[in-house]
């Protein structure tokens, strides 16, 4: 409920080291507060500048994961680190879907709008792109080790050592 989310957000503002386990709040209030935090950022975790290239990469017929990886390699280091941590948490949630009722598909549906925050020109463009954006989020969740494991540049320079 919104009052619980507002209460949690206020407590977090007061104390960034807040131990959520000490609060008597339902897990969905914590999840909503987390999504609110990411939604309030000036730019999404996956920056607007990468959006069109990500759409194209997700629509690739061949070597889709490689194409997505090349786009994600352009993430700022801080965004990559935050995304790795967030996706790792989501995978933990999905691994416990028997308790959370949130598998990778559900998480992808819930989180792609927050991770990408696309701007649609029309209902038609929203309807046309939503399946591709959901697919991207699901591929990211399923293949995060490949898609977010250092950048290709880091790997290449590591190969030369």
TrEMBL record:
Positions of the Rho-GAP domain: 1-148
Record SUPFAM superfamilies: GTPase activation domain, GAP
Any one biological process term the GO annotation gives: regulation of cell size
GO MF annotations in UniProt: GTPase activator activity
InterPro entries in the record: Rho-GAP_domain, Rho_GTPase_activation_prot, RhoGAP_dom
Gene3D superfamilies listed in its UniProt record: Rho GTPase activation protein
SMART domains reported for this sequence: RhoGAP
GO cellular component: cytosol
PANTHER family from the UniProt entry: RHO GTPASE-ACTIVATING PROTEIN 190
Protein name: Rho-GAP domain-containing protein
UniProt source species: Plectus sambesii
Lineage: Eukaryota, Metazoa, Ecdysozoa, Nematoda, Chromadorea
